[in-house]
Amino acid sequence: MRKNKVVSAEEAVARIKDGDCITTSGTSLLPGKVLNALEVRFLTEGHPRGITWFDPFPTGVAGIEPLSHEGFLKRVIGGWYTPHPALREMIDQNKVEAYLYPLGSLGFWCQQMGAGRKGFLTQVGLETYLDPRQMGGRLNDITREEMVSLVQLDGEEYIWYKAFPINVAIIRATAADEDGNLSMEEESSTLSVLHQAQAAKRYGGTVIAQVKRVVSAGSLHPRMMVVPDMLVDCIVVEPEQHRAEANPERDWLDQNAWHQRPPLPVLLSADPAVWRAWLEEGAVPGQSLDEILQHPSADKVAARRAALELRPGEVVNLGAGPSRSINPVAIEEEIDQEVELTSQGGVIGGISSGGGFRSNVRFYFDQPGIFGFYHAGLITTTYLGMLDFDRQGNVNNLRYGDTWVGPGGSMDIGHNARKIVFCGTFSAGGLQVEGENGALRIIKEGRVPRVLDRVPYVSFNGPKMHREGKDVLYVTERAVFRLTAQGPVLSEVAPGVDIERDVIGRMGFRPILAPDLKRMDERIFRKEPMGLKRAWIAPGG
Fold it and tell me: How many CA atoms lie within 13 A of 148 on its CB side?
């Protein structure tokens, strides 16, 4: 039976009570109008209070923190806190209970709660900060309740995430029809909106959906619907809703549109005007190739070296940090059609600049779907970011300096991948380098070393990865290490650097040197493409 579900944002958030657990759709699917109304209600009325915020895919829009208020939040359960300085400060000052878990596990956890199950079982996180014998994902002193526990099944250890009540789901879509069915044709990802709605309804809760428009009943094809009307209680209309709230100036960018591969100046440009001119007019503004190519940066150098690990026909994952630049490198080298590139947001294929511009997307998984794909071992290699690593090969992706970052999807993705390529700069905090004429020139060294004697938090356990037979590389702009039983072995050094002064002297330990220690390929450090396509089609390439 049809029922008018359209309400104001203020009417919608009036349903949220003190002590409720809310879950929000994350990243580009930020339901900003509803969350802003919730913030205004708290700041004017002092209610609701004592809220638990469950964020299965992080609401990662820098500078937008409507929920980060003392008194409003009792507890936060999420996977990435980098964009939220006010929330991080609350965590450090013990003003909010805080848990930090991998994105895949968060998605599966939400899915299982939405399916009426008692929890979620996984081996991801054993022997890391997630292990209940270590931190159990808890971030401060006031966070005492254990959300995860260690269990035995068929003689093996698992981490058990227990179910908990979700009272309100605040999700976002593109359109709602008059019955309340939701579609997401203009959204840049699908994430866990269906499972969040199911989880809230399982516990007798409320589902609030923010949409850009309401359309007539029957006008949405059933195949386009992502959330059915019986799961939706309130609809809040926001005509000014952006495609990606993190980049409102890019509403013109339809990543579902199909375009010819861009010319190199467009591909490598960080200027939105260059991309817009190409996408809309097929033209390139007056910038020469040399002006855009310049000298390869530290991130691009690391991405180029990592791209040398690609093989024709592979299905791979690209994570954060320098690894996100592998996509434009692959297109620059004209090998992008020979490999299948995927991302943790659920996107398969497409043209990406590595900086937020994307088109030609071929398929969208939801959050449990993409991580199910990874867990099934259906990729050969994953390229992941790293904050720092140590003499045992342990990797920290949890905290950088005074910032809680989080592993993102890396721990779930790496769990069943046969090969892991960690990518990062050798130092941080002001590092300036450039590739020039086949060698690396260090202009200014970073203040913060990233190769340590011992990492402060373990997101990836080096000895465990080696025991499991994984092929693990640590790729930086000036050196490459390979994981062995003795830890990371230095296997390659960039031409143009002094191995003692610029590499070993800036590490927290003295590494073992590979018997066949090599120079990194000089092509990595030149302006022009490396010529990987020619190498791939050549005999033996």
Answer: 31
Backbone region of residue 71 per phi and psi (left: phi > 0; alpha: psi in -120 to 50; beta: other values): left
Residue pair 34/12 in contact (Cβ under 8 Å)? The answer is yes
Q: What is the pLDDT of residues 501-511, one digit of tens each?
A: 999 999 999 99
Write out pLDDT tens, residues 351-383.
Answer: 776 566 777 888 889 999 999 999 999 999 999
Kindly report the pTM of this predicted structure: 0.93
Q: SS3 of 149, please?
A: strand
Q: How many CB atoms lie within 10 A of CB 469?
A: 7
Task: Compute the distance between CA of residue 111 and CA of residue 89 in angstroms, rounded to an integer.
Answer: 30
Q: CATH 3.40.1080.10 occupies which residues in the chain?
A: 9-237, 295-537
State both tokens at 359: 């088109």
CA distance 86 to 70: 10
Region of 191 please: left (phi>0), alpha (psi -120 to 50) or beta: left
Q: Domain 9-237 has what CATH class?
A: alpha beta
* DSSP code for 516: E
What is the CATH T-level fold of the domain 295-537, as seen in this structure? Glutaconate Coenzyme A-transferase (3.40.1080)
Packed helices 103-114 and 367-375: angle between N→C axes, nearest 10 degrees: 120
